[in-house]
Structures are given as structure tokens and as C-alpha cells.
Amino acid sequence: AGKGGKSKRSKSKGSRKKTKKPVSEVDILSPAAMLNAYYISHNAAACLEFRGFNWPDSPKKKGKKGK
């Protein structure tokens, strides 16, 4: 193995730019969204938290510990 000099790297096919899709507005009160909220929420406060409306000064949720 040669010391110094240029290191060989695998050549990639150029950088590909990812095009961002335009974000469509989602209706959180649509029947499908309400059905989803019904199954994942335990109460009204949990439903609002899932939709992004958190209570002010509420404690942050801690992640589940792995076993």
C-alpha cells in the first residue's frame, strides 16, 4: 500500500438533486382523519396533541425504553 498520494474512491454517477413535492393542505377534520383520531387518541387532549395543538407548558413525552 502506498503512503501519501491520492486515495482511490468509488466514483458515483454525479449528484442527484431531490425535487421537493409541493405540500398539499390536509384537512384534519375529514372523515378519514377523524376515524384515525378516534382509534389513536385516548381523550380529547390526546387528539389535539396528535394534531399539533399542544397544551402550553405541558411536559414533553419521554421515549419508550428498549429492553
TrEMBL record:
Q: Where is this region: Disordered?
A: 1-24
Q: Where is the composition biased (Basic residues)?
A: 1-21
In terms of domain of life, where is this protein from?
Answer: Eukaryota
Q: What is this protein called?
A: Small lysine rich protein 1
Quick one: which gene encodes this?
Answer: SMKR1
